[in-house]
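Researcher: Next sequence.
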Amino acid sequence: MKIKIAQLVLIIFALSRMAQAVNPAPDGGYPGGNTAEGQNALFSLTGGTYNTAVGLFSLESNATGNFNTATGAGALFATIADENTATGAGALFSNTEGEANAAYGVFALFNNIEGSDNTANGSNALFTNTTGQNNTAMGAGALFFNDGHESNNEGSENSAYGVNALFSNTTGYANSAFGARAMPSNTSGSFNTAAGFQALGQSISTGDGTVATGSFNTAVGERALGDVSTGGYNAALGAEAGFEVNTASNVICIGAGVPGISSVVGEVDDSCYIGSIYNAPIDVTTALAVFVDQDGKLGTQGFSSQPGLPKLGSNEFLRDNKKVQNLEATIAQLQKQIDVLTAQLEKHGADIQQVRAEVQLTKTAPPTATNK
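Model: Next structure:
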């Protein structure tokens, strides 16, 4: 702090040497590099330095805080801390001990008390935050309900860019929302990432009482994973991708409009859905089989842990596979011929049995009388 003050003094001294006198002299200048303009602005100041208060009751409670800037009626009204910047009526109004906060917009960070290193840009941005820290809200109503205790990282390290982004977040930690109304219903879910209009929205209406608590979800695209409530570790890429995933976890959805559920059994954990593959035509002359191993790796070639076996998808494998197919075809043809011969033998056997029976009947028949 002493270094900062010394640097600022040198800058001010240099500028003062260059400045031309004006008549009448500017008002609002006070000892310690403080500037105040407005009823009760910097009213309680005793030893604080380099503060600027412009507006009714701006920085009214500050006594010893330093490097604060308040522009607007009631801006930084209760603060006694250092290095806060508030622009807008009621911006950082309740802040007392929070430091290094920046609020731009009417009632931005209005209820902040002890939270530090927060940035709110937009009317009512981070409005409810009291102790959460290291949050960034850019847009009207962004992170509106955010709150939590810094000792356990509740309501901290969140980033919201867009009107009403992360609107309902209360204690969620380390969430990132980019887009108007992105993640509007998340309350306590953490480590979620949403990029796109109403991505990870859970509901289209903002602040309608819907609660979402799922964590570790990633949604990229307009309304991607739009209905997730308690599901976690899901990933969706594409407009409305995974729009029917709600409570399932570990679901991967790739492609616009891919619902992310089974048409037979509904939601399934640990599942993967990719659009534009089923019934899509391909060039069969260049097509190769696709393999997947136990690690989920896809490819047209692979290796075997058993020595001497060719690579899957290699020319050697394809030649050997062709040989096997030819051999299988030959075996199938031979089997047909064997079946025909067997049927013929069975028929011949039946004929022989019939002849034997007729011969036997002839031998046992009684002699008949003849004319002499």
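Model: The chain has a mean pLDDT of 85. The chain has two helices and 17 strands.
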